[in-house]
Amino acid sequence: MAKQDYYELLGVAKGASADEIKKAYRKMAMQYHPDRNQGDKDAEHKFKEISEAYDVLKDEQKRAAYDRFGHGAFENGRGGAGGFGGFDFGGGGGGFADIFDEMFGEFMGGRRGGGAASGRGQDLRYNLEIGLEEAFKGTTANVRVPSTVACDSCSGSGAAAGTQPVTCPTCQGHGKVRAQQGFFTIERTCPACHGQGRVIKDPCKSCGGAGRLRKEKTLQVNIPAGVEDGTRIRLAGEGEAGLRGAPPGDLYIFLAIAPHPIFQRDGANIHCRVPIPMTTAALGGTVEVPTIEGSRTKVTVPPGTQSGHQFRIKGKGMSVLRSQQRGDMYIQAVVETPVNLTKKQQELLREFDTAGKEGSHPQSEGFFAKVKELWEDLKD
Ligand SMILES: [Zn+2]
Ligand SMILES: [Zn+2]
């Protein structure tokens, strides 16, 4: 049953403006309205056709979908998918569901909770926590999702083996019925097929005609190196199976990265506070620090290093998503004052103190010079 082109039906050009379409529809609706054509079956049919055409063309999103895929864009379930003829869905990596999302949005029953009209499967959410090291390297996570899957016995159609769902006689496959109330036309979901457009005469024994079964499925999810905390990964079509062959929902993986005991992440950079012995800070030396990839690196500490000083180690930070680059690592020196000194150490430090000369503690000297000035001012 070849359907007439929506633009032709309304007698407008393909590039017609929203206003032109509205005007054309109004004119034709007046002409073919059932109230004016009592008992005229042809007029009634025509009225239905132009209403359907207008329904699509008045809506920007639906019109875009129609321009791209033709009538196939609005058929439910499997039949609908077939309408995308020639479109490459790839290996399940986002193809169909992405397009679906973008093009149809709420029209096909909504993303959230897969509307009753389309029977689209529910979207599922899965919370996954990984370590910072895994976020750095990338990882493969096995995700077990309690879900519904398409029934094997009937390939998801819901019809018993050897039978097929048939076009719903109540709505002729439209999934919607129209009722006249005076001048108004009220459209509602077909009560016979619940909007599916098809009915099952002989339901599948395994799934009772639903076309899907409860089952836990395990998915391997590749987490790319460099992912951020809070990343949402969408696995198109991995949500719950749709009702009787309708499209499945999507699975959303909500990724959390567990706090690390040593490293703090800041985008592509990693920060690490490293305690440095007072003597090393004063005399200079090296300290070894761990790196996110599991090795270690040496940091040269120049003589006179102060607490809070930052050392930048280029290219030792986090990996950057979809890139060969890496961020930097920042080492913050925390000079450690020794505790539990032996008698000998105490003596040496006292000796150290008296052996000192002016200028060895510039910060203290600067600070107390300012304090002194303050006190002098107060005397006035
Ligand atoms: Zn079945
Ligand atoms: Zn129906």
Describe this protein's structure.
The protein is of the alpha+beta class and 380 residues long. The chain contains ten helices and 15 strands. A four-stranded mixed β-sheet has the order 10-11-15-14. The chain has a three-stranded mixed β-sheet with strand order 1-9-8. Helix 2 runs antiparallel to helix 3. The longest helix is centred in the C-terminal third of the chain and has 18 residues, at 362-379. One zinc ion is lined by residues 168, 170-171, 175, 190, 192-193, 197. Residues 151, 153-154, 158, 204, 206-207, 211 line the site of one zinc ion.
Beta-strand fraction estimate: 15-25%
User: How many E strands?
Assistant: 15
Q: Uncertain segments of ≥5 residues (pLDDT<50)?
A: 76-117
Silhouette: elongated
In the sheet with the most strands, the strands line up as 10-11-15-14
Element layout with pairings:
Layout: H1 6-10, H2 18-32, H3 41-57, H4 60-69, H5 77-82, H6 95-104, E1 124-130, H7 132-137, E2 139-150, E3 166-167, E4 176-181, E5 184-189, E6 198-199, E7 212-223, E8 232-235, E9 251-257, E10 264-266, E11 269-277, H8 278-283, E12 285-290, E13 296-301, E14 310-313, E15 329-336, H9 343-354, H10 362-379
Bound molecules: zinc ion (2 copies).
Residues 151, 153-154, 158, 204, 206-207, 211 line the site of one zinc ion (ZN).
